């Protein structure tokens, strides 16, 4: 369905008035590196302290570090860029460990020589821009040029993909990551004109479409109209974009934004009591367990809003990964899954458990009403849907 409708530099629904309004914000992008999620190595000191003091963070970091010190990565482009991000986080937390650096470079070189598609070009753009930014001081000028140019190329390839509606997971996954290239490489002398346009397009999408779209659909209650699996599929990308711009620009989008509130409620209220599988609404295939992709944003939402149920759910997902590993799932403890938990988990937020919640919850933006008789496995459960949107 992703038929090419145009190509760089054309973008459906680009608004010239919006871009003129947003252009002054580009001055907020720092000229130093890193600028994505952190501003200096000292920003990681609090993370290192949590690793030392919190057993859950220490355990998650152990899984991440064990993998990062190996030389193994998946050549499936859905996963490779995610693994690069994880390796780079471990690299900085380990004070620029040379062994982990070799692992990062190996993955980056693979992404330079391997082509993607409508789903994976954006993942590659994000991974390369992230690594370029966090490793900037440790790359030679030739390496910066090579990886920076490749990140720009990957981002430009995204423009060949149909620009979906603001209410489709496709848009966030297929276009959202261009902002990493626009921010991470901005002003560095690598195709500056293109990078500036990527920054403007990414910022317009984030502020004029993604944030407003989520405020409309979520309304502070949690979730997304496309189903639980699609919500897990893309929401991490959106949440991390909110953090990207907030951390780089100093403009705290989290402060007044409520479109990711209630994400943990969406999980808690819409799992079947007897097996903790997602309700099967508008999902492909049969009912399935909670998706580990939620771990890529739940700790961030728990920290920034702050949300005690999101903290509980983050821990629940770690325990669930360990349980699935014991049951024979060989991918359950893949180390690259844990870097968002390590980076953002906030153990100071008071925990809220599902059993502390009311027995019913209304998701106003898309017309779901979930209710149960208790929080036990034998509870009577019902979900009513009267949705104003598909």
UniProtKB/TrEMBL annotation:
Q: Which Gene3D superfamilies match?
A: 2.70.98.70, Chondroitin AC/alginate lyase (1.50.10.100)
Return the InterPro entries for the record.
Answer: Chondroitin_lyas
The record's annotation in SUPFAM superfamilies points to:
Chondroitin AC/alginate lyase (SSF48230)
Q: Mind telling me what this protein is named?
A: Heparinase II N-terminal domain-containing protein
Give the species.
marine sediment metagenome
